[in-house]
Amino acid sequence: MQPYIFPYLGYFQLIQSVDVFVFYDDVNFIKRGWVNRNKILIQNQEKLISFPCIKASQNKLINDVEVDLENKAYKKLLNSIYYAYKKAPYFEEVMPLITEVFKSDSKNIADLCIASIKMVRDYLSLSTELKRSSEEFTATQNLPAADRLIAISKKIGAEIYINSLGGKALYTKGYFAKNQLNLEFLQPKLPEYEQFSEPFIPSLSIIDVLMFNSKQDVLKMLSVYELS
Fold first, then answer.
1. Could you say which of 157, 160, 167, 212 has the lowest number of CB atoms within 10 Å?
2. How many domains does the chain have?
3. 3-state secondary structure of 177
C-alpha cells in the first residue's frame, strides 16, 4: 500500500492482518489524495487537514516529494491537532507521540507517512514487519502492477497476498493463483466509539481513534474485518 499520513483504522486492520507490510513508496504521488491529507474532528465536525509538501506533483514518486517540517504550517497543523483533542480521554498518552512524528528527521512525505504509521504500530505493540518498496524491491519497479505485487510477495516468501477492498477492481484471484499466490481482499469494519458528542463521525484519521480509545480497545477494533 502507498504510505498515508496517520491513516484511518482500516489501514491498520490491513497491517494487523499480515506478517509483512510493504510500503509502496516508489509509485507516483497523487495530488488531492490521502498520502498527505486526512480528516480529524474539530469542534465536533469532520475537517480535512493537509500536510504541506514542496512542489508536489503527480510526475514525482512519493519518496521524491519533499517536506519541510520547520515550515510554520507544520507548527500550525500540530497546534490544530492539540486544541482539537486536548480534552480527549487519551490525549496525554497520544499527543506526545504525534509531536515526535512532527519532530522527526523526515525529508520527504513518504518518510513522514511511514513515521506516523510506525508510531502507531509501536504504540499498539503490533508485530508486523514493515518494508519499503524503494529499498528492497527496486528490481520490480518496471513490472506491470499485478506482476510487481506477485514478485514482491514471492521475494519475501509469502503464500497469501492481502489487498484492500479497492483492489478487487484491479486484480483477480485467478491471475494470482496461476502464480502460486492466494489473493485475499480485506473488508474493513469500523466500529463506533464515543467521541465528544453525537452523531458518531466515522473514517477519521487514526489520531481520532487513539484519542478516544484505550490500547486494548483499539486492538479489538483492529480485528473486526472480513477477508474475501
1. 157
2. 1
3. helix
